[in-house]
Specification:
single chain, about 90 residues, mainly alpha
Length: about 90
């Protein structure tokens, strides 16, 4: 037996279900995707690559999708900030 310590598992990316949370049937769920969902997808891809979950021959395709998602999130966030700033400025 060795005295090596095992790495602590990272916190889950997905929130844990609460015992008080009702399960909504798939047919009744809203079919929308938010910017947060896309940002989370980018983070999941990053974690998969860091942990070696992506094979070398898949890296180009996965990286391309990751980059497109990240760029989309970045542009939309910038647009949202600009729109918010424009509505907060008093008229001159």
């Amino acid at each position: 037996m060795t005295n090596e310590t095992q790495p602590m598992p990272e916190a889950s990316l997905m929130p844990e279900a609460s015992p008080m949370t009702e399960t909504v049937p798939l047919e009744e769920q809203d079919a929308s995707i938010s910017l947060n969902d896309l940002a989370l997808a980018v983070r999941i891809i990053d974690l998969s690559v860091e942990r070696g979950g992506i094979k070398g021959n898949e890296a180009t395709t996965v990286g391309s999708v990751r980059d497109r998602l990240a760029k989309f999130v970045e542009i939309q966030n910038a647009k949202n900030i600009a729109a918010k700033t424009a509505t907060e400025q008093p008229p001159v």
